[in-house]
Design goal:
The chain is α/β, with parallel strands linked by helices. It has a single domain, classed as 3-Layer(aba) Sandwich (Rossmann fold), CATH 3.40.50.150. It is built from nine helices and seven strands, in the order H-H-E-H-E-H-E-E-H-E-H-E-H-H-E-H. Helix 3 links the parallel strand 1 and strand 2. 38% of the residues are buried. The N terminus and C terminus are likely disordered.
Length: 264
């Protein structure tokens, strides 16, 4: 596991923010969502191709510490118009670019990581084709996307995805789906929406903080139990998918079915 310490001295806010993704508190409204992401990424981690890794829409690179190994080169790209609505100056991008047209050579990366970004792009087909283009043959895309979530980072909030929608988009980009992980069941999804909407504009007074902590801990724990007892799978917070770019030999035999774009 990579070092999760701050990249420069005094970066306590960044360190706390990263920890909130990897070690979410049960007393916070986003606990179920963030727990589901960490668990799903752990289930896909063995499929990651190590080496040069692109974190697409990287934000604060919260999952580098979870997925990277010593010797990996973890490169983040983010888009200035959308990053200002999320983490602003804390964004850890190495390159600023529109992910519809990435400034990287074909086949440059061993893996691409894209977590909770696809809902914020107006043309997800183009983004996935670009992710496929910059992957080397045999490289891996690990993608997460929401199925249920309130409006956020407006106006850059365009889509929600079922597992079948993600399959279609990935296969259309020439990527082979290797493994899918459902993030939460019905109770988790409903409980997370309840907490997110209830505490969206909650006052920061001390009594308000105490109530939020108690309410979140109760609802989060009950939802975890219900998901285990009644695993209703028609509703989910979202999906995590690992998809591989076809090796050169296989791609060559399927040229007529290819969806690869030309180099922009």
């Amino acid at each position: 596991m990579a070092d999760s310490s701050p990249p420069y001295p005094g970066s306590e806010a960044l360190a706390r923010l990263r920890r909130s993704f990897l070690e979410p508190s049960k007393g916070q409204p986003a606990y179920l969502e963030r727990l589901s992401l960490v668990r799903a990424l752990r289930e896909l981690a063995d499929l990651l191709e190590h080496g040069v890794i692109l974190d697409l829409g990287c934000g604060v690179k919260p999952y580098e510490a979870l997925l990277a190994r010593p010797g990996d080169r973890w490169m983040g790209v983010d888009n200035p118009p959308t990053m200002q609505g999320s983490y602003g100056h804390l964004t850890q991008a190495d390159v600023f670019a529109d992910c519809h047209q990435l400034p990287f050579a074909d086949g440059y990366f061993d893996s691409v990581i894209c977590t909770q970004v696809l809902e914020h792009v107006p043309e997800p087909e183009r983004v996935l084709r670009e992710a496929a283009r910059v992957l080397r043959p045999g490289g891996m895309l690990i993608l997460t996307a929401p199925m249920v979530w309130p409006l956020h980072e407006e106006p850059y909030d365009f889509f929600r995805y079922t597992r079948y929608g993600l399959r279609h988009l990935l296969e259309s980009a020439g990527l082979e789906v290797i493994r899918e992980v459902q993030r939460g069941n019905a109770a988790t999804a409903l409980g997370q929406m309840l907490l997110d909407l209830h505490f969206a504009h909650w006052p920061e007074s001390q009594p308000g903080k105490v109530y939020r902590q108690l309410c979140c801990r109760l609802v989060n724990q009950v939802c975890i139990w219900l998901d285990r007892l009644v695993p209703a799978r028609r509703l989910a917070l979202g999906w995590a998918v690992a998809a591989r770019k076809q090796p050169l030999g296989k791609a060559a035999t399927e040229t007529e079915h290819s969806a690869w774009p030309a180099q922009p």
